[in-house]
Design a protein that fits this description.
- By secondary structure, this protein is of the alpha+beta class.
- It folds into 3 domains: about 60 residues, no CATH class; about 110 residues, 2-Layer Sandwich (Tetrahydropterin Synthase, Chain A), CATH 3.30.479.30; about 45 residues, no CATH class.
- The protein is about 55% helix and about 25% strand.
- Strands 3-2-5 form a 3-stranded antiparallel sheet.
Length: about 250
């Protein structure tokens, strides 16, 4: 084989490889942001894509929802209580060209904005509000982050507060408070029961006093109940009307 032929074959293979190097494949959830000589040209995908080698370059961007775990950080409430908070942010790219052109690292930027928004939001609330209004805090943080990142082509889907951890001394204080609340409720329930019982006894005493013969029947029932107990002594309570009758009978006999 002549030297010129070899050179031609090598050159042909090199040219073929050169043109094949411009082939790209974008998956269904991917887009390619294409630049030509440094200028943005188009956003293309999914499928088989061809870019001109040397003249064009492409940056691949995912359109799937990205989950970013915001590392635990200490934030100070308005009443100067330190709280450890851990959050998760869910977001996706809706404009790939903006996410590439307008921000260097949109994932890192979203994470930093979320951390700052968390500190700002909790810093305006007292501890009791923070513990009771986690959903509201998440909504406020989302609004703040979305306002800053929307121009980057980012859509904040959701922000969740996974964990709020209090200092050890605050946990002990809340435990004592909860114990005091339980004791308070127990005392209230007991006093309400005693009130109802005393009212029932008063009603029963009134009925026994007003109904003729009722006290006598109650006495007989008490005697019957006592008789069932195998004790050595039986104490009999005599109603006033019965004792009065006995006295009158004794006077007549005299």
């Amino acid at each position: 084989m002549e030297y010129g032929t070899i050179i031609a074959i090598v050159a042909g293979v090199a040219i073929l490889l050169f043109f094949l190097s411009g082939i790209r494949v974008a998956l269904e959830y991917e887009r390619l942001v294409v630049f030509r000589l440094g200028r943005y040209i188009r956003t293309i995908g999914p499928g088989l894509i061809y870019i001109i080698p040397l003249f064009e370059s492409a940056k691949k961007v995912e359109l799937r929802i990205i989950t970013q775990d915001i590392s635990r950080q200490e934030v100070i409430t308005r009443d100067n209580i330190p709280v450890l908070a851990n959050t998760v942010v869910y977001f996706k790219v809706v404009k790939p060209e903006d996410a590439v052109i307008k921000i260097e690292n949109y994932v890192y930027a979203v994470r930093q904005y979320t951390q700052a928004a968390l500190r700002d939001t909790i810093g305006t609330m007292e501890l009791d509000q923070v513990l009771m209004e986690r959903e509201r805090i998440a909504i406020d943080i989302r609004g703040m982050v979305e306002k800053e990142t929307i121009e980057w082509g980012i859509d904040i889907k959701s922000i969740k507060i996974q964990e709020l951890e209090l200092p050890g001394e605050m946990k002990r204080a809340f435990a004592k408070q909860a114990e005091a609340e339980r004791a308070k409720r127990a005392i209230i329930i007991q006093s309400e029961g005693e009130k109802i019982a005393s009212q029932n006894l008063a009603d029963a005493a009134e009925k026994l006093a007003t109904a003729k013969g009722a006290l006598h029947l109650r006495t007989l029932q008490t005697i019957r109940d006592i008789a069932q107990d195998p004790s050595e002594k039986i104490v009999i309570f005599m109603p006033n009307e019965l004792s009065d009758s006995v006295v009158e009978i004794a006077k007549k006999l005299k």
